[in-house]
DNA sequence: ACAATGAATGAAGAGCTGTTCATGTGTTCC
DNA sequence: GGAACACATGAACAGCTCTTCATTCATTGT
């Protein structure tokens, strides 16, 4: 499964951005920008899961989870299929799974490789305006 | 430079998430969740650039750009080095470049592969509450 | 048809985000 | 030293996001 030489791979990121629409790209990537959604996607990466069970697995209220699932569904990252009275959710396809995995990979390494930036900086950036 | 078998690669995403701290991961990934920051990172991927020039290149006001640069700096994604009266920014390292590139790769393919989700859905998700 | 379950939806509120405007800090050149 | 330039910083505000509460819809079982 090589990410080798696609048509798009020859272009610079900046060109690819306007091609795809920076706003759309940002919107899609924002799916990974919240702990709740990250947990949902990570849980679904282990396999399909009914909505209610999912909410429990990631420690959210049913309603909150449903709202986020709608978002992820609208972005095309997950799909829900009715099965009895439950609705079973899954990751949309492999690109979602890989996107998640590689994001984690790079973030892990970024967080470990800091030498300029003391750990505070990340914590500081993570906490918006609290804890001062 | 293979992403082969790291220590972390054996764990499931969910485990990796709590290990790294879901909030921190989310905070880092949110750097890619906005058009302005995406443009900044994409421009820097082409090579180092002074702050003022950068602002012009991505079509932002100097101040707005500086604010976002601070964010990216705090997250450890970019670094700034003084050179004369300018401050030249660069991507922190290869992980940032690859994160950007792979994010674009997957988003491009996700946006093309939609079959359940009509194009409206993405547009709808991109536009928060406007255009109704 | 009715009650019960599982999930989606809508409204509302607290909090965060990104931009702008105004000002401050550091650097170069005269 | 003082003017000009390059950038950072702080305050403030509009807008978006996420959650909670209440309600509605769909499906199953009696």
Write the layout of secondary structure elements.
The structure is a homodimer of 132-residue chains.
Chain A: H1 13-20, H2 22-29, H3 35-45, E1 49-50, H4 51-58, H5 62-74, E2 78-83, E3 86-91, H6 94-113, H7 119-126
Antiparallel strand pairs in A: 1-3, 2-3
Helix pairs in contact in A: 3-4, 4-5
Chain A binds a DNA duplex (30 and 30 nucleotides) through residues 30, 34, 36, 50-52, 55, 60-70, 80, 82, 84-87, 128-129.
Describe the protein in words.
2 copies of one chain form a homodimer. Chain A is mainly alpha-helical and 132 residues long. Helix content of chain A is 58%, strand content 11%. Chain A has 7 helices and 3 strands, in the order αααβααββαα. Chains A and B meet through α1, α2, α3, α5 and α6 of A and α1, α2, α3, α5 and α6 of B. Chain A binds a DNA duplex (30 and 30 nucleotides) through α4 and α5. Chains A, B: Keywords: DNA-binding, Transcription, Transcription regulation.
């Amino acid at each position: 499964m090589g990410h080798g030489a696609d048509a798009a791979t020859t272009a610079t990121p900046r060109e690819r951005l306007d091609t795809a629409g920076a706003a759309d790209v940002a919107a899609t990537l924002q799916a990974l920008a919240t702990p709740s959604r990250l947990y949902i996607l990570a849980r679904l990466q282990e396999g399909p899961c009914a909505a209610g069970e999912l909410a429990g697995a990631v420690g959210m209220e049913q309603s909150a989870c449903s709202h986020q699932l709608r978002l992820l569904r609208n972005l095309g990252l997950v799909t829900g299929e009715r099965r009895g009275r439950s609705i079973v959710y899954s990751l949309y396809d492999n690109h979602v799974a890989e996107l998640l995995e590689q994001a984690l990979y790079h973030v892990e390494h970024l967080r470990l490789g800091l030498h300029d930036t003391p750990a505070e900086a990340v914590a500081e950036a993570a906490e918006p305006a609290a804890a001062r």
